[in-house]
Amino acid sequence: MTLDLLTQHLQGGLTLGTYALSLENTANWITIDADQDDLWQVLIAFAMTSTMPLYLEQSRRGGHVWSFFDEPVRGKDARRFAKALLMQAGFDLSSQQQRKIEIYPKQEHLEAGKPGSLIRLPLGYHRRVKVVGQPGKRFGFQTPDGAPLAPTIREQLALLAYAERVPQSLFETMLSEVPEPKKRIPVTTPFVTKPVDAHAPLSERIKAAISVLDFVSRYVELDSKNWGFCPFHDDQHKSFGVDTERNFWSCQAGCGGGSTIDFWSLYRERVLHQDKTFTATITDLAQLLGL
């Protein structure tokens, strides 16, 4: 980031975005993005009564709620804090309603070689809104009653430079409202496998040796209908399922699906933070299954 880039952003020469997570998987702030006006109005009403330091930014549709921390916090705790805010505002995190609200950071930790999710930096011009003679429309910060946070963008910047932070004590109190989910600890007993053709390729032997259900259920707690919380994203409503007839898993929230090999490749990358390549995955699986 340079002063020249920031100046161009504020003048409309370009549009900057920012990533919420640092390379150490910590966050200095959270943003709640409500693209629907009815959800945005709920957040505004909450801000009117809340003593939490919240900053409301208008957008093309709805708006963003920003909150800044006293010190960097873990990505997973930043997301838990945002969920606690949404719960206080009256949102049901297990409902479809929560899907329409995005929390930044979107990830608890960065995936290998990926920077995370980008959100547009405030106080620039939104280029999807056409204004004659302008590069777009500028949406600033506002008070809960709809007035500008300050009369000019320069004055808004001055206020944001000294934005009120969430005290660490209050941050920890908020976290207690959203307990950290307990991860399922895989059973360490050996897998029960079926006899396989020793001359078949290793990948085919892996698929034939154990069903997707029998393997996946070691790592995902499934209900009687074979549905559970997806281990690959911040799941709130059991979007992960196993189809026993067609022998594959899938995530309705977009994490993908497929065979045991596909599952273990993604599990190695997102949960174990290990090499997800095909060779590394089937080598590991062969050892796990005793093939």
Quick recap of the structure?
By secondary structure, the chain is α+β, with helices and mostly antiparallel strands. The chain is built from 9 helices and 14 strands.
CATH architecture of the largest domain: Alpha-Beta Complex
Q: Tell me the number of structural domains.
A: 2
CATH class category of the largest domain: Alpha Beta
Write the H/E string, N to C.
HEEHEEHEEEEEHEHHHEEEEHH
Shape: elongated
Characterize the structure shown.
- It is a single chain.
- The protein is of the alpha+beta class.
- It folds into two domains: 3-175, DNA primase, PRIM domain; 202-289, Alpha-Beta Complex (DNA Primase, Chain A), CATH 3.90.580.10.
- The chain is 31% helix and 19% strand.
- It contains nine helices and 14 strands.
- The protein has helices at residues 3-11, 37-49, 75-88, 153-161, 168-175, 202-209, 212-216, 260-270, 278-289; strands spanning 17-19, 26-34, 55-58, 63-74, 101-104, 118-120, 125-126, 137-138, 141-142, 165-166, 227-228, 240-243, 248-251, 256-258.
- Strands 2, 3, 4, 5, 9 and 10 form a six-stranded mixed sheet that branches. The chain has a four-stranded antiparallel sheet with strand order 11-12-13-14.
- α6 packs across α9 and α8 packs across α9.
- The chain is elongated and about 75 Å long.
- The N and C termini lie far apart (51 Å).
- The mean pLDDT is 89.
